[in-house]
Amino acid sequence: MNGQSLIDAPYRERWAALEQAAGGLHLVRRLVPQTVEQGAAFAEAAYRAGHEGVMAKDLDSGYTPGVRGKSWLKLKHVVSLDLVVVAAEWGYGRRHGWLSNYHLAVRDEETGPGRTTEYPVVGKTFKGLTDAEFQAMTERLLGLERSRQGGTVFVQPEVVVEVLFNEIQASPQYKSGLALRFARIYRVREDKNADEADTLQTLRQLYERQFQRKGRLN
Q1: Which fold has domain 79-211?
Q2: pLDDT tens, position by position, 88-115
Q3: Is the Cα torsion angle 144, 147, 151, 156 positive or negative in sign?
C-alpha cells in the first residue's frame, strides 16, 4: 500500500489498510466479538447464509503465504446424529490390530415391526476415538460379529455412537443415497439401543433443509 509491504504487519493493521484501500468495494463480513455468545451468533448467521462456517484469525498474526499455521482456524458448522455401527474394517499403521474404520448406519423407520429392521450405511469414519477406546470397541464388536468379507467384519447392529459431521451429500455409493461429510465419533451412546438411533427419514429431511441456505448442485 503506497509502496509499503504489509505482509509482516499484524492482522488488525492489514485489515484496517484493506478497508481504507477498498473504497466502495464489498468486503467479507467480519466481527471482533467481545463474548463467546457474540462469536457463536456470528458463526450461526454465516451457516444460515449458506457458508460452511467461519475463519477465526489471531488479531496479531502475520501473513504467511502457503503455510497452514495455527493463527488462522477454519471453524465449520457441526451437526450431530446418533448412528449404529454395522461393520468395521481392520486398521493399519498405528491402528493395526484394531477394528477402527466404522461403518455408520441410520435406522429405516419404514422397516421394523413384522419385518427385519434395516440399517442403511451413510458413511465411514475412524476419527474421534482414543487408542484405549479403539481397543475396547474392537473387543466389543468381535463379540457381535456376524460375518467377514476381506478385511471387513460385519456385526449385529447394537452399538450406537454420537457422530458429528459438517454436511450431508448425495452418494451413489450407499444404498441410502446419502453420505456424511467429515464424520467423526464424539462418544459411544451407552444409554441408547439401535431402535433409538436416528432415522433415514430424518437424514433426508436434513439433507433437503440444507438447500434452504445454499444452492443445489445440478
Answers
A1: OB fold (Dihydrolipoamide Acetyltransferase, E2P) (2.40.50)
A2: 999 888 888 899 899 999 998 887 655 5
A3: negative
